[in-house]
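Ticket #4471: structure export looks truncated?
Reporter: QA, pipeline team
Priority: medium

Steps to reproduce: submit the single chain below to the structure queue and open the exported record.
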Amino acid sequence: MELTNYSVNKLFPGTNRKYVIDYNNDIDINDKNNNIAIIADLISENSTVLDVGCSFGYLGKWLKKNKSCTVYGIDNNKEVLDFVKKEGYYEDVYLINLDDITFFNAEIINSIYTSEIERFNELPQIFDYIVVADVLEHLKTPQTSIVFFAEKLIIGSNLIISISNIANIDIIFNLIEGRFNYEEFGVLDNAHLRFFTKKSFAEWIESVDEYLKNINKEFKFDINFIGSTIYQSENVKEIISKNPIIYNLLKSSNPEIDILQNIFALTKIQKDDRVFGFSSFGKNFNAIENISQTLKVLVDFNEKSLKEIDHLQKIIKEKETIKVLFLSITHQIGHGVPVVIAQHADYFLKKGYTVYIGGPQGYNDFSYSGCNRVYLNNYLEAALFANKYGISCVIAHTPPFFSTLKHLSPAIKKVIFDYGEPPAELFPDYVERKLVLIEKKSCYDVADKIYTISNTIKTESEQDRAEVIKLGNNHLAVWNKDMYFLREKIRNEYGWKEKIIVLNVARFHSGERYYKGIDFYADVMKYIKSFNDSVVDNYIFVLCGKAFQSDILYVKDLSLQVIANVKDEELVELYAAADIFMNFSKWEGYNLGIAQALAFGLPIIASDISAHREFPIFVSNNIYKIREKFLDIVKGIKLDEVVNCERNPILFTWISHLQKFEKEIRILCR
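Actual output as written to the record:
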């Protein structure tokens, strides 16, 4: 069974199998590619929920059993509602055909459903959530239902909607082939009357808000994107396997083409309240223009040119220096990857290489003294540049440039330098991150060499042939006795005299706080301070990192002292002023903050993850053991002598790792 185009067009009423009960249809809350699981995970415990299109009550049963929710249901099939009543998990159910509600004057059409609609109308505003999963596509006037449901929703609560994505790649491919074939299920369900993309759905909700204004309603909607599910049909997989360039071209122009369903939360707000969500849906992919430009370049860069370049490269290789191209999506100061590239590039220059640094132009980029900086905005531009200008070796450091390796001339050596990717499950944009990981893994096969920054990342890569090139920290600021004056100065400026300062350095934007363990850091602070100890007021927990104003306000509410968006020299001052360093990231490939803390000789407490275990530090995820270690460290700190502390920096040098890396690249290219 395909969920997009079918082999033949089945646009006719099918069997009643949509209402055949599946007794094994339990919800797996960990399945992030299932719209019902995503919705169930979103709903808070002890909520009152309306399940529209409840069918046999799978969602309500799960919410009742696992989250103690009070659930009501609506469906237009009496048989399934009789079953739901018998099961007993729903508070009440209503037999309603949503198309029997008129849109213009909210009067009820005479039908068998009239009494049920009137009974539902008697309900007060009781719902914390109204779930409309894969229902609106079936309705003649879906806006009728939006208004109808919203009347029963508490202000500030959410209408959660799952909707099919008509812009799925399978639909696109089949339209090109002249097919638009309906099925009994999926995007082209033969009962579907309405079709949406992510952006067009948001635009439609804007028009619903305009309608609510025109009929003088006291409420409207704000919109937020919750997530999506992905799906590739067997037809699409076959096309990708035979013609990957077509798929990659479309994917680079519109990253949403693998989406099967989009999930939105419509928040009911007062009519005069400000909306924030609609602006995030305004992105224009310029897909047609991007495809046109790329195809023009590819046509111009024909097979004859590639053969000529291959021939010239063989001649040049014997006469010229090795030309190496480092690729990264960011070269901005403050990010870890450019720091590593700068170390590599400088060493390669000293060894006689011609070094090119490729990637988009950003704000406040590294200067990369002595290197040739080229602005390349995507992996195809990078491949064309490398092929045209006789690059000897391409070293890709970040997505999307791993995909460059698939489009290089055979004469060019292909290297992946892998920092790892955090588990997609730690982020709200799970689907997009999962697709990036899938694409990176597909690039391993074409790489001549794979290097990782740690044993942790080698294990995660599942590539036995990967080699570890570790990072150093001796390029960072290092504690010395001349910093005692700086330490005293900064502590006095912040009012930290005779205080114990705990420092955590991590980005804390909303999408990264969970992954960076910011809430656990706050929990550790609260737990340590919860004991009736006369000195707890002397403990100051500081969080330093990049953030927006909304993130700063959020963290301040956690009672942490926030110092955000500092310059490099200011960050060094904070390390000098600190007494203890803590970090509780849920994943890291290499923790630069810990590396800097070691260079300052700070005692460190960190989460027990694989990358942290590679440092000579204390690690634990047990809050009780963390407090014990903290108190053990504090015992050795005298508040009246806190400025004149002793520090023993721990340094890891770059040189041996740089020597190994350069030697292997030279052998590979010769």
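Status: closed, not a bug. The export was complete when the record was re-opened. Leaving a note from the reviewer for reference: DSSP finds 23 helices and 20 strands in the chain.
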